[in-house]
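Work package 3, deliverable 3.1, input record:
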Amino acid sequence: MNLDNSNQNKTILIVDDEAPIRDMLRVALEMADYRCLEAADAQQAHSIIVDEKPNLILLDWMLPVTSGIELARRLKKDELTQSIPIIMLTAKGEEDNKIQGLEVGADDYITKPFSPRELVARLKAVLRRTNNAGIEEPIMIEDLCMDPISHVVTVNDQAIQMGPTEYRLLEFFLTHQDRVYTRSQLLDHVWGGNVYVEERTVDVHIRRLRKVLQIENYDRFIQTVRGTGYRFSTKLAIKA
Amino acid sequence: MNLDNSNQNKTILIVDDEAPIRDMLRVALEMADYRCLEAADAQQAHSIIVDEKPNLILLDWMLPVTSGIELARRLKKDELTQSIPIIMLTAKGEEDNKIQGLEVGADDYITKPFSPRELVARLKAVLRRTNNAGIEEPIMIEDLCMDPISHVVTVNDQAIQMGPTEYRLLEFFLTHQDRVYTRSQLLDHVWGGNVYVEERTVDVHIRRLRKVLQIENYDRFIQTVRGTGYRFSTKLAIKA
DNA sequence: TTCTTCTGTCACATAATTGTCATACAATCG
DNA sequence: CGATTGTATGACAATTATGTGACAGAAGAA
């Protein structure tokens, strides 16, 4: 539901066919307060990834059936998973594969055996490095401007203040105009898929967003579609 | 992705006491179009560094007289040289030293033996990461002035005292205005990529920086963006 | 050494945001 | 026209994020 505040709610997926190694990794990661998931092969890994969307994947190079590098390649090809950073685990003497791993799109690799401290240090570095994703260009609607770089919304160059949720809601609307969304869909996209809040809560945040946008009647773009949900549209803003 | 292919203006200093290894490294680097310098011991290395200001240092762990790690420590301590990225070269089985190297401030390490391709890949990565053309000109914001040469910050020609971390934080802010940074990103840029400190530590240093900037209310430029992080901006410094 | 400065972390204080509710209002339909 | 259903809105307590002072250990200076 929230951004990366405490490093403690990051989910790491461990993919290795050897249980003892998984155990060792899990211990090290849980010591560092990460949440761990485990998979023994590529197929199992894939379903967990789709299901749980981990923040980072520790991927062994050697896997039965589908190799780790093949899994990495697939993950980096898929829109939904390509942003998840991958750290490849390689055994000693597989130095050449490291390069191959990096070429496939792995974000780092670690040679076994490694110290737990090293593991965690690298993992943190990768998480930090890949933490930024999103829109870079300012979005302008008439005199309304949202600049994702500075994280500022202005109307006629005057800054508008709003809460984080309202900001995300507006951002979603601006990037998904002229389309109705049900409350459920909005919860999915703005709140994040795995939280449970009442659907009516959406109404309240719509209200709050409308309130701050009232300054130049920009709230007219947020339209209620009775029986369905809400829509943001500049074209269909018939109301005065 | 790779915009800058002109490696010719990048100077790499190779520090290793074994001539054959130096040769190998030099060949690999010159193939990749880097300019190379060589040093056989720490003392020689130091004078070359001061003299030539290389863009990156490849530093062997084992050196006669003064060890590589000791040299690294000194370089990272000196204001003039601390921004030069260092890649440590370690022999197999010295895995523990890696951590020590990173703690000293090395930006990466490579285990011997390594493939030339790997070397260059890592080197590029480090250069990309630390691609900061050092600031030379004083930065002025109204009556606030930061002189990177003398390392002095003044308000109305009156010097302000602050700790090194606060200085680096302010420097980062002054050179990256009007943009939100998460705590994580600030740790990356101000503290350095491979240290582990709590994210809340950023808050404390923000606090300390604000405190010393309160003199002429210059702390109003440091804005907190709730749910995200902090931003330095002179434009958006008005609050209701 | 001893003294000072700086750093990272903690605990607590303060402030902002959130989700939910109760109620008011508006639209739709028989 | 009521009755019914869907939405708007203000209030509020719980939760969460940030501000802030204190402190112990580390790093440096004398």
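Confidence is low (pLDDT under 50) at residues 1-6 of chain B.
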